[in-house]
């Protein structure tokens, strides 16, 4: 029998963190897509749990952070424990060496939290509409790209074979995402290899309800004892706790039992007592520090997440980096398939995420060594050194150290730092508190940049009370208006491709609405109303103090600044107000001008 064939613009293979995050964007852009998943339904329990501040920011930009923050454990402090030198001979013991803040305040306005991966997946799934297009119990078997057809942007050049309920299926797609985890069939089918360590380290993980007199059981703890190391991660709900253990070299996953993990934990915690009232979930899994040798085929099939990088769970990166791969590629596909951006935009996914994966593996190699007692002994690394390194790695482990290289969507200028000294092109746009002009609400600037697929030009105008500042803003607005119109399809809302935000350095009570150029108050949305929510003042608020945003962004109010922010909130470009024409040139580099222009 001829297998059933289905056509879809994007086929996502795997409904894990990477696949679902990409799907959220595609749903927002209204792209035709389908997810194939071998499981019989959504992930129910287990796997990763650490949610970096960057991932919380992403959920917030999608408008789905509230439940995440409400349900999660918030990590505020880390306790470090080491062998107790005063323990009596022959008696093993541990003592606390240090407490440290889990996150420096400036790293993010969002917290680092812990929540089950299944719950995060469910929150993303909730954004895929009433009937998410997921084909469960569907096993992907292989993928092929028709190289000649791939040259035609509109061709369904990729063919995926799959099987469901004993029946073969064929999918023809324009783009395919291999989000099918560490044993990716898509990767193997393309003949790509994982390169890096040849040996896998084996990790034991258990979610347990402990009965213990260990005092820091509700804190994130790094415990290095003579009997081995354990990382404690308290779980949501005030009772459950997760223990991570790296098992000795040579351990096979099949050798690991729950009893062996529990007995190891009792030894590490000695002399404190450790009983297990209940084990909710446990697992042992092997992991190597490796990345795929290629991330794409003909820029039509892309690998994401564990399918292209694997590493230890020590720094809580796995789910986050995977989800962020999906976040990086989803909006790009959305823009290309809507005809707003040229297909070459997809090349930036590979440039950006290959580097991120390489850096992640290098970081993980160094970080993992800190937990290896043999390595510490041989290299004279003290418990104090371990604690210091752990704290130093804070920005990285928060997901805030990612910096993308120069590309069509990230252009680095020589004078960027003179214009906005605390904004870095290629890194995510930081947030600062402002007061919204229309309703006096104190809010973080990024809250005014919802992730619906549009680009943002953030204009730091200076103080509108100064006549020269006001007239300069008028001129800039005219130029930006033309730029936005040039790339907005006829009939679409004026802010749907290039949105705008104005940040004034004024006493907001002395500014009147009519002084704000109309570019910042476009008539938009289904009711055709004038939008007045895009203007903010760097001013004192009634109940939340002053955010000092110009200072936080390093912008001189006399000079002002233009900052272009990508749909995923990475900084694309910084320019002086006098360089407003360069904004149009920037967008010309990858957007498709419309017939309106
Ligand atoms: C058992 C286990 C425990 C883990 N524990 C931790 C942890 O404690 N902490 C941590 O940080 N990380 C942990 N990880 C790693 C973490 O879960 C991953 O880094 C993260 O889930 C990667 O996301 P992803 O979307 O790339 O892949 P996944 O979340 O693995 O999603 C891949 C999806 O693809 C589906 N799939 C695979 N093959 C096919 C196919 N042929 N056809 C159709 N569907 C397919 C899978 O069923 C799955 O739903 C664990 C991983 C595993 C497997």
TrEMBL record:
Q: Which CDD domains does the UniProt record give?
A: PHOX_C
**Family designation:** Belongs to the PheA/TfdB FAD monooxygenase family.
Q: Which GO terms describe its molecular function?
A: FAD binding; oxidoreductase activity, acting on paired donors, with incorporation or reduction of molecular oxygen, NAD(P)H as one donor, and incorporation of one atom of oxygen
PANTHER family the UniProt entry points to = 2-MONOOXYGENASE, PUTATIVE (AFU_ORTHOLOGUE AFUA_6G11480)-RELATED (PTHR43004:SF10), TRK SYSTEM POTASSIUM UPTAKE PROTEIN (PTHR43004)
Tell me which residues make up the Phenol hydroxylase-like C-terminal dimerisation domain: 402-593
User: Gene3D superfamilies under this entry?
Assistant: 3.40.30.20, D-Amino Acid Oxidase, subunit A, domain 2 (3.30.9.10), FAD/NAD(P)-binding domain (3.50.50.60)
- Return the protein name: 3-hydroxybenzoate 4-monooxygenase
One Pfam family this chain carries? FAD_binding_3
User: Native species of this protein?
Assistant: Chaetomidium leptoderma
Q: Which lineage ranks, top first, belong to the organism behind this chain?
A: Eukaryota, Fungi, Dikarya, Ascomycota, Pezizomycotina
Which UniProt keywords are present, listed alphabetically?
FAD, Flavoprotein, Oxidoreductase
Q: Which domain of life is it from?
A: Eukaryota
Annotated FAD-binding domain ranges read 7-363
């Amino acid at each position: 029998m001829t297998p059933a064939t289905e056509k879809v613009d994007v086929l996502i293979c795997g409904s894990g963190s990477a696949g679902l995050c990409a799907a959220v964007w595609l749903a927002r852009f209204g792209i035709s897509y389908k997810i194939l998943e071998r499981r019989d339904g959504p992930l129910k329990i287990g796997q990763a749990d650490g949610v970096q501040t960057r991932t919380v920011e992403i959920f917030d930009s999608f408008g789905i952070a509230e439940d995440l923050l409400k349900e999660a454990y918030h990590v505020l402090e880390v306790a470090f424990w080491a062998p107790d030198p005063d323990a009596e001979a022959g008696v093993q013991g541990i003592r606390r060496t240090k407490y440290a803040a889990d996150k420096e305040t400036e790293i993010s306005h969002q917290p680092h939290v812990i929540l089950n991966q299944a719950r995060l997946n469910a929150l993303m799934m909730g954004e895929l509409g009433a009937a998410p297009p997921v084909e469960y119990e569907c096993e992907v078997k292989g993928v092929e790209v028709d190289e000649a057809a791939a040259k035609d942007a509109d061709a369904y050049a990729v063919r995926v074979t799959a099987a469901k309920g004993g029946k073969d299926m064929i999918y023809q797609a324009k783009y395919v995402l291999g989000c099918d985890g560490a044993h990716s069939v898509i990767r193997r089918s393309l003949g790509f290899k994982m390169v890096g360590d040849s040996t896998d380290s084996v990790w034991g993980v258990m979610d347990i309800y402990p009965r213990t007199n260990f005092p820091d059981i509700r804190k994130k703890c790094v415990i290095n004892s003579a009997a081995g190391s354990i990382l404690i991660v308290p779980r949501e709900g005030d009772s459950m706790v997760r223990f991570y253990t790296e098992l000795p070299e040579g351990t096979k996953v099949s050798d690991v039992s729950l009893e062996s993990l529990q007995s190891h934990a009792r030894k590490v915690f000695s002399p404190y007592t450790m009983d297990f009232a209940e084990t909710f979930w446990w697992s042992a899994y092997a992991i190597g520090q490796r990345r795929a040798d290629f991330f794409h085929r003909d820029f039509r099939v892309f690998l994401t997440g564990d399918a292209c990088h694997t590493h230890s769970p020590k720094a809580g990166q796995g789910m986050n980096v995977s989800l962020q791969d999906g976040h990086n590629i989803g909006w790009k596909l959305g823009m290309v398939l809507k005809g707003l951006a040229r297909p070459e935009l997809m090349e930036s996914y590979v440039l950006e995420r290959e580097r991120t994966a390489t850096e992640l593996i290098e970081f993980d190699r160094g970080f993992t060594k800190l937990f290896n007692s043999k390595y510490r002994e041989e290299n004279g690394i003290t418990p104090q050194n371990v604690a210091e390194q752990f704290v130093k790695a804070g920005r990285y482990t928060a997901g805030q150290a990612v910096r993308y290289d120069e590309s069509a969507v990230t252009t680095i200028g020589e004078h960027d730092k003179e214009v906005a000294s605390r904004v870095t092109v290629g890194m995510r746009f930081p947030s600062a508190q402002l007061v919204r002009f229309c309703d006096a609400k104190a809010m973080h600037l990024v809250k005014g940049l919802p992730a619906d697929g549009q680009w943002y030009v953030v204009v730091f105008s200076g103080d509108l009370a100064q006549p020269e500042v006001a007239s300069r803003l008028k001129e800039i607005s005219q130029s930006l208006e033309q730029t936005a119109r040039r790339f907005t399809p006829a009939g679409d809302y004026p802010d749907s491709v290039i949105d705008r935000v104005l940040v004034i350095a004024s006493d907001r009570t002395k500014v009147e609405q009519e002084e704000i150029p109309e570019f910042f108050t476009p008539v938009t949305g289904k009711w055709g109303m004038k939008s007045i929510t895009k203007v903010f003042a760097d001013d004192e608020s009634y109940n939340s103090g002053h955010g000092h945003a110009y200072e936080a962004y390093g912008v001189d109010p006399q000079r002002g600044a233009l900052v272009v922010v990508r749909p995923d909130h990475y900084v694309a470009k910084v320019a002086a107000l006098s360089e407003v024409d360069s904004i149009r040139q920037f967008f010309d580099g990858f957007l498709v001008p419309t017939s309106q222009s």
